[in-house]
Design goal:
The structure holds 2 protein chains of 2 kinds. Helix content of chain A is about 25%, strand content about 30%. By secondary structure, chain A is an alpha+beta fold. In chain A, the strands form 9 sheets. An 8-stranded mixed sheet of chain A has the order 19-18-20-21-27-26-25-23. Chain A has a 7-stranded mixed sheet with strand order 29-35-34-31-32-33-30, with no helix packed on it. A 5-stranded mixed sheet of chain A has the order 6-5-4-7-10, with helices on both faces. Chain B is an alpha/beta fold. Chain B has a 6-stranded mixed sheet with strand order 7-6-5-8-9-12, sandwiched between helices. In chain B, strands 2-4-3 form a 3-stranded antiparallel sheet. The relative contact order of chain B is 0.14. Chain B folds into 2 domains: about 20-50 and about 100-310, Rossmann fold (3-Layer(aba) Sandwich), CATH 3.40.50.410; about 55-95, no CATH class. Classes of the chains: A alpha+beta, B alpha/beta. Chains A and B meet through strand 2 and helix 2 of A and strand 1, strand 10, strand 11 and helix 8 of B. Strand 2 (about 35-40) of chain A pairs parallel with strand 1 (about 5) of chain B.
Chain lengths: ~675, ~325
């Protein structure tokens, strides 16, 4: 017998004593009786004299009534202690059952016939674990995929937990985030007695995740001391962690990368990259088909040795009518054609939109600038002089990009027009200017900035340059420094982007000089800038990976504050939009429709593609053992089945029965 | 402070409802009395005469018996024919004719005020009025004597049915209340009334001292007791339950009881037993006894009395 009362036993004792005192007082205190006038009390006296012969029995009946009330109180208080009848062969434990719901758990190798998935087996194991809990054990079920989702509170209600496991736990299309789940479980178990975590999984976790654990106490061999000090590590001190492996086979060939890239020179054509790996222990044979929409573009046979990587590149694929690309792997007949894991046999990608940018050059016949832009096919250039622009600034209204060459207008064009400045000056400069640098040298560049991709500027000469004072609070950042002086700066101004070079390009009538236009980097710099203006990574359309939170640029969409994301299965999630970027979390592989909204009204729709794209998930080879932070996890102890039974409901029914009996006997004048 | 007690019967608190007797003898009641009188004349015509004979042997004209002469007897009543034949002095006796005296003793104690819908007292007064009317109409001398713990002011002996309105007025105005002291009252009654006759006692006979002594007093003093017990159905089978304080309406004695079904049944048995004791006592001494509850119409009771004989001769 065990108790699970939320209040201390001491307090219950006082409550019981108080209730008993009240009950006894109620029996001792005489109730005021109703007075009735009778014609001849002598008759009543005679009757009562006869009755008084039974006084002892009468008092006994009254005592029985009191005892009955005390019994009811006792039963109710006992029920409030939540007693559990059952064999408790150990101290009560708090168990968090982590059920791996990652993509690899969809592998159909739960049984020899391939009719059960790993998820089915994991559910069975989890239910077995729950059913074998002791009377005082409490369990919490937690689903582990790209997120860690507690599915219940700590409970010992076995049927409820079983139903929850059956109904709510399903394998997703995302990799598992084991450290996050362990952290959540450790937090849930904090300050609980006998904490225990049971991981039911196929063990398909990246090595990096398995190392993000510290056990406290002496450093375990093979674990780097600095890693152990990493605050990001999950502290599993004093927690018993056990592992139940599921899965049988490892035969799987999967697509682990599928990307589309447009050519810089010809953005009407695309290049497709597919990476495939055989994770099995046997040679595998597959047929790889690339579709544009429903139209096959290419089909080829792949013969893969065990563990072999294959990278397939499809160059110069025309855009086609449909912007959806799909790659599928199909087993071929014969040996090496089986595959237990179908999720990574199909990958999805989207072709980027083909759009020419309207570029307005406000310049006084700068051949270097005009010549460099000529190499870029995807723009529609236009040129005006500063005087013409000053006379009619509205000309910039329908432009995608305005380049101000050694000219700073009094008022900047309105967003979403992006701006490129060469040598802005004065108070109307888009960036604050703090001084002038003579003969500066570019000593440091932000290589991560899209503008600086594939560009080397270390030897660029310039005789002088404005020095900016970028304000990080306004989102202004430095792209290139001369020692400590920012001379190339950039910012996002809402939807619009602004880039400014502190120096001017050589041209007639200018006394400043730089050799940048004579360098190969110059046209690249302009193309990078225009591509950045067009949208982040516009030249490399990365398909998004499921299970990761991504920031998706809403190119060409202005004023969106929120977005609805409809997944392949039709589910719709809402996500905020900040600085033109929407948050995206892919639960399923496939195509997504993202509808940008402003004030609740849809203003644009963008398609997205999400793939598993995880080699660790595609590597479905089950691990019979799991090592976390250098510690090999043991299998759970034999969970001998113990029968536990909650008694409160029966006690409550018993108390109700007693109350009914007391009511009936009282009103029938049996116990009075 | 003690809370006022509820009456066993449905009565309003405060004023005794039995006090209000203004509507007791209405025109309908009078018609009922006349009907009773007519019925008594027809049905019991064999016994009906204007005169009643007492058993007193005296100076009447109808021979009754002989007895042995004793010194001081009137010589005129010696039967000389028998002396000639038997050689014994025997005196001739004659039944003496005289008016019958009917005394109607009505219990007006507090216990008679109980009853629903009609207090027992009202019922008793209606019966008393009916018997009085028939007695007056038969040229008997009728007197009504209310009693409780003492004898109240009486209605003097009257004769002739034109006196009935005086009877009504008396019954409506006579004081009521007090305890029941049957023995003391009967003792006073026999002391105050030397002329023997019928003594009709209408009461519930709820006397803590018992009913025997009172009735016996009448017998000892040669009255002819006529016992009418009136009770209310709700006092015979009260509808009570729960924890109660029972207050005796006459003595104020309080008794706390928890009324259960078994207790109620025991009480009903005890009440019946009490009534049977009274009936058995009357039967034992050959006294007419009638028991009625207030839901039986009073005229039915009166007819029942007539049929039994004794009241009408």
């Amino acid at each position: 017998m065990s108790f699970l009362g939320p209040i201390g036993l001491g307090l219950w004792t006082w409550v019981a004593l108080g209730a008993a005192a009240l009950a006894v007082s109620a029996y001792i205190i005489k109730m005021r009786r109703r007075r009735f006038e009778v014609p001849f009390a002598q008759l009543w006296k005679r009757v009562l004299e006869q009755k008084d012969a039974n006084t002892l029995w009468k008092q006994l009946k009254r005592l029985m009534s009191l005892l009955l009330i005390l019994g009811i109180l006792g039963v109710l208080l006992f029920a409030a202690l939540d007693p559990t009848l059952g064999a408790v062969d150990r101290e009560a434990r708090s168990v968090v059952v982590l059920i791996d719901s990652s993509a690899s758990m969809k592998a159909m190798d739960g049984d020899e016939a391939g009719k059960q998935s790993r998820m089915d087996v994991a559910k069975t194991r989890a239910k077995g674990l729950v059913d074998s809990m002791g009377g005082g054990d409490l369990a919490m079920i937690m689903k582990v995929d790209g997120q860690a989702t507690p599915m219940s509170r700590f409970s010992n209600d076995g049927p409820m937990l079983d139903k929850l496991i059956d109904d709510k736990i399903n394998a997703s299309d995302t990799p598992a985030d084991l450290p996050r789940a362990l952290g959540a479980a450790a937090d849930a178990l904090r300050d609980r007695k006998n904490p225990l975590i049971v991981i039911i999984s196929d063990g398909a976790f990246p090595e990096a995740q398995l190392g993000q654990v510290k056990w406290g106490g002496p450093q375990l061999p093979g674990v780097k001391p600095d890693a152990a000090k990493n605050l990001a590590q999950v502290d599993l001190s004093n927690i018993d962690v056990r592992y139940i492996p599921v899965g049988r086979r490892s035969d799987n060939v999967g697509i682990i990368a599928f990307n589309v890239r447009r050519y810089i020179a010809n953005k009407a054509a695309y290049e497709v990259f597919i990476e495939i790996q055989n994770f099995g222990q046997e040679p595998a044979h597959r047929q790889l088909t690339l579709y544009n929409g429903q139209t096959p573009v290419d089909t080829r046979r792949l013969d893969l040795a065990p563990g072999q990587h294959v990278r397939q590149i499809y160059p110069k694929i025309p855009g086609g009518e449909d912007n959806q690309l799909r790659a599928t792997l199909r087993p071929v007949d014969g040996p090496g054609g089986t595959d237990s894991f179908a999720l990574d046999d199909t990958a999805y990608a989207l072709l980027p939109a083909r759009k020419k940018q309207k570029v307005l050059m406000v310049t006084s016949d700068n051949l270097f600038l005009e010549g460099a832009l000529l190499v870029y096919d995807n723009i529609d250039p236009m040129k005006v002089s500063p005087a013409e622009y000053a006379a009619k600034p509205a000309i910039a209204d329908d432009m995608d990009v305005v380049i101000f060459d050694d000219y700073t207008p009094d008022a900047l064009p309105q967003p979403p027009t992006s701006l490129l400045f060469f040598h802005p000056t004065g108070e109307h400069s888009p960036f604050a200017i703090k001084g002038m640098a003579q003969n500066p040298h570019i000593t440091e560049v932000d290589e991560g900035h899209p503008v600086m991709r594939w560009v080397t500027m270390s030897d660029v000469y310039m005789d002088r340059s404005e020095v900016f004072a970028p304000d990080s609070k306004k989102g202004e950042g430095t792209v290139a420094f001369s020692v400590t002086d920012p001379i190339v700066v950039a910012k996002r101004d809402g939807r619009r982007k602004v880039l400014a070079f502190g120096f001017s390009l050589p041209a007639n009538g200018r006394d400043s000089a730089t050799d940048l236009p004579m360098r190969v980097a110059f046209p690249m710099l302009l193309v990078n800038t225009l591509d950045w203006f067009a949208g982040d990574q516009a030249d490399l359309l990365t398909t998004y990976a499921t299970g990761h939170r991504e920031r998706v640029p809403l190119d060409g969409v202005v004023g969106a504050t929120e977005a609805d994301v409809q997944g392949p299965d039709g589910t719709i999630t809402h996500t905020p939009v900040l600085d033109g970027l929407a948050t995206f979390y892919g639960q399923k592989v496939g195509y997504y429709d993202l509808t940008a909204k402003s004030g609740g009204k849809a203003i644009a729709s963008i398609n997205l593609a999400a793939n598993l794209a995880s080699a660790s998930e595609s590597d479905i080879a089950p691990s019979t053992s799991l090592t976390l932070g250098g510690k090999k996890l043991e299998a759970p102890e034999a969970f001998a089945i113990t029968h536990s039974q909650k008694l409160w409901i029966y006690l409550l029914l018993f108390a109700t029965g007693l109350i009914v009996m007391e009511w009936v006997t009282y009103h029938r004048r049996i116990t009075v | 402070m003690v809370a006022p007690a509820e009456k066993l019967t449905q009565v309003s608190k405060g004023k005794n409802p039995a006090e209000d007797r203004s509507g007791l003898f209405d025109e309908k009641f009078l018609k009922t009395l006349e009907h009773l009188h007519m019925v008594s004349r027809k049905v019991f015509s064999g016994n009906l005469r204007a005169e009643r004979r007492t058993r007193k042997v005296g100076s009447g004209i109808e021979f009754a018996d002989h007895r042995t002469y004793s010194r001081g007897d009137d010589f005129r009543y010696i039967d000389w024919n028998l002396y000639g034949r038997l050689d014994k002095l025997l005196l001739r006796l004659f039944e003496e004719e005289e008016d019958l005296h009917i005394y109607i003793l009505v219990d007006v104690s507090d216990s008679m005020s109980i009853g629903s819908p009609l207090p027992k007292l009202h019922y008793a007064m209606q019966v008393a009025a009916a018997l009085t009317y028939v007695g007056l109409a038969n040229l008997d001398r009728v007197s009504i004597i209310p009693f409780g713990d003492r004898l109240m002011d009486r209605l003097p002996l009257s004769r002739g049915k034109n006196r009935i309105f005086r009877v009504f007025d008396f019954l409506q105005k006579c004081p009521i209340g007090g305890k029941t002291e049957l023995a003391e009252c009967m003792k006073d009654f026999v002391t105050q009334n030397k002329r023997r006759g019928l003594a009709v006692v209408i009461s519930d006979f709820y006397d803590p001292q018992g009913f025997e002594q009172g009735i016996n007093t009448l017998r000892y003093y040669k009255f002819e007791p006529f016992v009418l017990q009136v009770y209310d159905l709700r006092e015979a089978s009260p509808k009570l339950h729960g924890d109660l304080a029972l207050v005796d309406c006459e003595t104020g004695e309080t008794r706390e009881v928890t009324v259960s079904k078994s207790l109620l049944e025991a009480y009903e048995r005890e009440h019946e037993k009490y009534c049977k004791e009274l009936e058995a006592y009357c039967t034992k001494y050959a006294m007419p006894f009638f028991r009625t509850h207030t839901t039986i119409p009073f005229d039915e009771l009166v007819l029942k009395i007539f049929r039994s004989g004794g009241f009408l001769r």
